[in-house]
Design brief:
Elements lengths: L1 E5 L16 H11 L3 E3 L6 H10 L8 E2 L5 E14 L2 E11 L2 H12 L11 E2 L3 H11 L4 E4 L19 H5 L8 E3 L6 H4 L9 E3 L16 E5 L4 H10 L3 E6 L10 E3 L4 E3 L1 H6 L15 H8 L14 E3 L3 H9 L6 H14 L2 H6 L3 H5 L4 H11 L5 E2 L8 E2 L8 H10 L7
Parallel strand pairs: 1-2, 2-4, 4-6, 8-9, 11-14
Antiparallel strand pairs: 1-10, 3-4, 4-5, 5-7, 10-11, 12-13, 15-16
Helix pairs in contact: 10-11, 10-14
Length: 419
């Protein structure tokens, strides 16, 4: 059966999350989005695990269900902050577990290292190899997936505190790593440029801090498997039944280009190199983004196509399309009105974005929105790239693609004196 899965979420007990981010809203908006399986997020938090045990039922499959039958998989994210080879490392790991018993054992282990009650994504001074080895000793069914691997500050291969390879990070425990989460700021094609990533399944998840449809499921994985934990893990390990991923344009992510948010400086890697990665406005080091970091580590040219790779689609969330065309906020009544009319007709956002025909769309949406949905389906929506924690902006309605304007602006700020 086809399963659209978002395997990386957070709960209301993580920092900077919606206070209404509970199982009921995850189910409600997961259905609206078109998801068939969602990660629970934050299973180590004492208040959240209590809610999970009250709201979800185990049936032995490793997939838990609400009373109405909507499926969840037990999942959390752990932040590992430690020193290796004389450098501070900050690496986030997504963890999947098959049942509450295993979750309780994971939490017991982490409690021996610190606290879990202050944040849904707790921080521990545990090296990645030790972390993997210890979790695998609890249960071989536990799955560890390095999170948003290119994020500068908290990614396995990130520019600020990461490593240059998976093996450098996990050492002798690399044998237990089968999947890598690409993050919003990269897509699979960018990762195909690194030969040493070929063997890994490249997964895509929202890492959402809210249940709103422009966040939940904005990136996800499409499987053709039986709905049970063992089949899911097998698909991640072997790619068998792993049909495709759904991605946002990598420019939509917060760290695609280099830059300084406080200085309003956004640069392509080629521009940053000329500046020796120094901000032309304040003179401090730039936050080096994902595209730049991939250029540093890649051993294949841009545009390389990996044979037999899991394919992917590129889509901008429907709410972003509507708000961009209306020139209004993504959460305004005007945007919701159009969004809800489409969902009422087609059942889910992914049915709108992927399956509704042009003729069907024209009966509900105006000509411009219909045209935009079709262009989006073809991956033809341009994005002004995100940088240093700022999301990219889809080019819709009266907006213009700002690539040339960015260069001119930065030269006016004094960038030309470095060239």
């Amino acid at each position: 059966m086809q399963i659209i899965a978002d395997l990386h979420m957070h709960s209301k007990y993580s920092r900077a999350t919606s206070k209404q981010l509970d199982i009921a809203n995850l189910e409600k908006y997961g259905k609206i989005k078109g998801l068939d399986l969602i990660g629970t997020g934050d299973f180590t938090h004492p208040k959240w695990i209590k809610e999970l045990k009250a709201d979800l039922v185990e049936d032995g499959s490793g997939i838990l269900k609400t009373t109405s039958g909507f499926p969840f998989v037990l999942q959390t994210e752990i932040s590992l902050v430690y020193t290796q080879d004389g450098k501070g490392r900050r690496v986030h790991q997504v963890v999947l577990a098959p049942n509450f018993e295993v979750v309780d054992q994971i939490t017991e282990y982490l409690l021996s290292k610190g606290r879990v009650d202050y944040d849904g994504r707790p921080i521990f001074k545990i090296p990645s190899p030790e972390f993997v080895e210890r979790l695998k000793s609890i249960s071989n069914d536990i799955e560890i997936i390095p999170a948003h691997i290119w994020t500068p500050w908290f990614g396995l291969l990130g520019s600020k505190s990461g490593f240059d390879s998976v093996k450098e990070c996990f050492q002798d425990q690399t044998k237990h790593i089968f999947s890598l989460e690409t993050g919003l700021s990269s897509d699979p094609a960018m990762n195909w440029r690194l030969t040493n990533l070929d063997k890994y399944s490249l997964v895509s998840n929202s890492d959402s801090h809210s249940f709103w449809p422009w966040r939940i499921g904005r990136e996800c994985n499409v499987f053709d498997i039986d709905l049970n934990y063992k089949s899911l893990i097998k698909a991640l390990h072997t790619k068998e039944g792993f049909k495709e991923t759904i991605e946002v344009d990598p420019g939509y992510g917060k760290y695609h280009f280099d830059g300084h948010r406080n200085c309003n400086v956004c640069l392509e890697p080629s521009e940053s190199v000329k500046l020796r990665d120094i901000c032309p406005s304040c003179g401090k080091p730039l936050t080096i983004g994902v595209l730049h970091r991939i250029e540093e580590l890649a051993d294949r040219p841009e545009g390389y196509e990996l044979k037999d790779a899991v394919p992917f689609k590129t889509l901008i969330p429907l709410s972003e399309l509507i708000s961009g065309l209306l020139n209004t906020g993504v959460a305004t009544q005007k945007t919701w009105k159009v969004f809800n009319e489409l969902i009422s007709k087609f059942g889910s956002e992914y049915n709108v974005l992927l399956n509704a025909t042009k003729e069907e769309l024209e009966k509900v949406a105006d000509e411009k929105l219909t045209e935009t949905i079709i262009l989006n389906r073809a991956g033809k929506i341009k994005v002004n790239p995100g940088y240093d924690g700022e999301y990219g902006i889809p080019v819709l309605g009266d907006k213009k693609f700002e690539k040339k304007e960015i260069k001119i602006k930065h030269k006016q700020m004094g960038l030309d004196r470095f060239m």
